């Protein structure tokens, strides 16, 4: 974990840079704007390092590494009024820190000074700027920087899309900028210096541990360095523990091979040393990690933790960054680790707060640093023999899903996440089928519900009778109420036949989606809904649909995009009523075909017997010209659907029982 620091909040990198630059310009500061950080090379090729994963301190090697020294000199030359607060730190001082491996530089700049703020803004803008090849955060990636802390904010390459996040560590970093490097960057083995793409996510080198030495000479009355190992157990009859304390999780020396992981769930017991996935992650690939549940890190009341937050015997409030040792207050114990990395990029809590006290579910977007089966561990630095409970951890490959099926139990308070991503700008149809027991005599589907006291399916039924304005029991998408259309509508907006509903989504960003039954008390719910998510593209070629005029209608097998232009052709005749023939546009009572004939039995609207498209009357044009095609009975019309979905066809007739015959329709997308 960076510098034993805490992590929270989120704000885009660009927004912070822009805001600081604006403040600097308003203050009339010209010096920093003229300063220039000189790169090591005049030009760079398009190839660039990937975003670096987090590489925490694992060894004691307190010698300045050449890449860190080089950047520090460039910064001090570009901004002569700033200063160096050092690169290395003695291994006996404080908690985990890349300073102890010579991989971090503390750049002395004051956040209280407008000049200092402008200088840092210049630097972070330089790090974040896209190069001429469109590579975002180009200099940060070429340098091999893994994170930066400044003025109560932290930005990490491993969570670049989250931007600058709130930082609540003990040191607010208002008098300096902390810049941490990967091993490749620290050793000058990245394209910033060499012009060749460096292995920023390679395993750290093997470095012998240097014996620890005091950071400063001991003086009378000076505070002693805080120990980095647990103190001996108290005397006076204290019973020894049966298991040794746990060290902070570290990356395994090597990862085992396995089949590519796409969607896997593992269980991490509180007393377990760890759990390893069956499938293998691929270096550079992104994965969504969902961790839920709680575990006890001791046998005393209140010693409960989830993947990110915990309570204590003397503090029942759920908090992040809790230390279980009074002598080690800045360490962040009890968190979930993957491959030795604390999942500290600000997780999306299911409840929306900093801690999820309802379902204890957290979601992280994780970029694999290397390929192989990865271990998951929770860091309890105390012996684990009194631990219990477990976390359920689902790992999803962040890859497109064009046709996904999932089951959503009504009792899943945190919902179920799609097994693949929806691509920004694409169109998807979400189909939800089935009904569930919502408890207390209530049955619900995606949009409607019925109760034992009110056996009529209704929309917008409140789960709480005392709060009828609360719209509950329908399906939420990403915790938002979406309106599903009934595939078969009985006139009330509900589908009381097979309880199937459709929703069209067009996401603006590439993401997974989460679906759940909106029941505030899901514990007593039963059953599950079946969900299918299909990516829709405008089909090509001709689709044929047969309309039996004696039935309520027919629906196309294909789904057509809203706004797309379709050519629809209707061919054939049928008996509309005894003595009356009809086609898509015209009717004949005495052998003479005429359009828009009025006064026919069972007529709807002004165009009886016409073929409707999506429930709307059309002006059909005879293929042969004129007003009616009395020979081939073939007509065309151009339709632009206002909603994505299949096309429906029917005839304008209230009495279908006396109809005989079929009209054949062909649908063809056109430019």
Detailed description of the structure:
The protein is mostly beta strands and 671 residues long. The protein has 4 domains: 2-194, no CATH class; 263-397, Jelly Rolls, CATH 2.60.120.430; 422-536, no CATH class; 543-669, Galactose-binding lectin (Jelly Rolls, Sandwich). Helices cover 9% and strands 28% of the residues. It has 7 helices and 44 strands. The strands form 9 sheets. Strands 33, 35, 36, 37, 38, 39, 41, 42 and 44 form a 9-stranded antiparallel beta sheet that branches. Strands 7, 9, 10, 11, 16, 17 and 19 form a 7-stranded antiparallel beta sheet that branches. Helix 1 (13-26) packs antiparallel against helix 4. The chain is elongated, with a radius of gyration of 33 Å. The protein starts with 12 loop residues before the first helix and ends with a strand.
Structure, briefly:
By secondary structure, the protein is mainly beta. The longest helix is centred in the first third of the chain and has 15 residues, at 114-128.
